[in-house]
Amino acid sequence: MTNRYVYGVMADDPVEFETDAVGGADHVYTVSHRRLSAVVSNIDTTAPEETDEDAQRHDDVLREVMDRDGGRTIVPMQFGMAFESDRALKNVLRGARPAFRRAINDIEGRIELGLKLVREENADVDTDAIEEAVEDELEPIAAQSVPNDLFSDRLVFNRSYLVERDDRERFDEAVARFEDEHDDLIVRYTGPFAPYSFVDVKIGAQR
């Protein structure tokens, strides 16, 4: 039996394209219910193993969808969501429709960008002053932001930002200014990503 692996859900027109997809698939398409479309590929399991390669393929498919037609909005699913049939998937779209609509409205026309600041080895930095400086530069441009874990001693700042596509250049320039002014920090600026950090849709059982 062929199952449906889900990358995300959107309200835009259906898509269909060839690419390297999760689980060895090479064809991405949509399963639709009313005005919602789930972006899927076929897979032979409902419990895919998260390898580095497939995790990257998952993100690459989302990025390809986001880049189509001048910029599409998609609510990203975490890795591993697979359903036994179109019917099962459509039932989920039906049941979670209000939540998906809210999430789509929240992220419409926006992308996620990430900023990590790592202090240079042996550098003595004022974390509070750094946070204030970043806030002054970036918060006026971002629509939202959320903190992420500081998973190492030298990582002094880790935050995700939801930014309007039209403000991406302003945001890039603000990050560059900050980097120029702080020689004691290593700036790791990443994205754009699908806005994982800014959506939280529970879509129930996989069967």
Automatic annotation (TrEMBL):
It is found in: Gas vesicle. It comes from the Archaea. InterPro entries: GvpL/GvpF. Keywords: Gas vesicle. One of its GO terms (cellular component) is gas vesicle. Transmembrane segments: none annotated. GO terms for biological process: gas vesicle organization. It holds the Pfam family GvpL_GvpF. Belongs to the gas vesicle GvpF/GvpL family. PANTHER family: PROTEIN GVPL 2. This is Gas vesicle synthesis protein GvpLGvpF. It comes from Natronorubrum bangense JCM 10635. The lineage of its organism: Archaea, Methanobacteriati, Methanobacteriota, Stenosarchaea group, Halobacteria.
